[in-house]
Amino acid sequence: MIERHKVRHSGRAPERGWGPVPHLGAAASLREGLDETLTLIALGIDGALYRTLKSTNPIENLNGLIAHYTRNVKRWKDGQMVLRWVGSALNEASRGFRTIRGYRDMKRLKAALAQRVPSASHAQLKVA
Fold first, then answer.
1. pLDDT tens digits for range 24-76
2. Which of 22, 85, 98, 114 stands the most exposed, by the fewest C-beta atoms within 10 Å?
3. Residues 38, 6: contact at Cβ < 8 Å?
4. Other CB atoms closer than 10 Å to residue 50's CB: what's the count?
5. Around Cβ 29, how many Cβ atoms within 10 Å?
C-alpha cells in the first residue's frame, strides 16, 4: 500500500520508484485523490463500483452538461436565477443518466459508511 506521508511530502511519484516528478501537476493530482482512493479501499469497496467512484469523470461530465445547457445566458441576475438554471440543466441531464457501474455494491458501501460515521442521535453537535 502507498504510504500517504511519502506521497504528500516527497514531491515524488510512486509509479516512478519515488524518483523526481517531471510533471508537478500530475503529482498534485495524485496527492489530491490519494485520500479518496485509500478511503474506498479502507471501506472495502472494489470491483466496478470502485472503478466508478475513483474517477472524476461522472461529475466532470455533469459539469459539462450544465455548462452546455447554460451557455447562452449572458447575464445572471441573482443566485435564484442560477439555481433555477442549474436545476433545469440537472433535470435535462438526468434523462441521459445511466445506471452506475457496480450499483449492486451500493448496499455494502452504505453499510460501511454507517459503521464509520456515527449517527446523528449519538453525535454531539457543536453550536458555534
1. 676 776 677 666 666 778 888 888 888 888 888 888 889 999 999 999 988 98
2. 98
3. no
4. 19
5. 12
**Does the residue 81 lie in any domain?**
yes
Whether 120 is covered by a domain: the verdict is no
20 - beta bridge partners? 12
pLDDT at 77 over 70: yes
Domain count for the chain: 1
Structural domain including 93 reads 4-115
pLDDT of residue 64: 92
Using the predicted structure, report yes or no on whether residue 18 has a pLDDT greater than 80.
no
Cα–Cα distance for residue pair 107/114, rounded to 1 Å: 10
Q: What's the pLDDT score for residue 17?
A: 54
Contacts made by residues 47-54, CB under 8 angstroms, sequence distance 24+:
47/102, 47/105, 48/101, 48/102, 48/105, 49/100, 49/101, 49/102, 49/103, 49/104, 49/105, 49/106, 49/109, 50/102, 51/101, 51/102, 52/100, 52/101, 52/102
Whether residue 51 is contained in a domain is answered as: yes
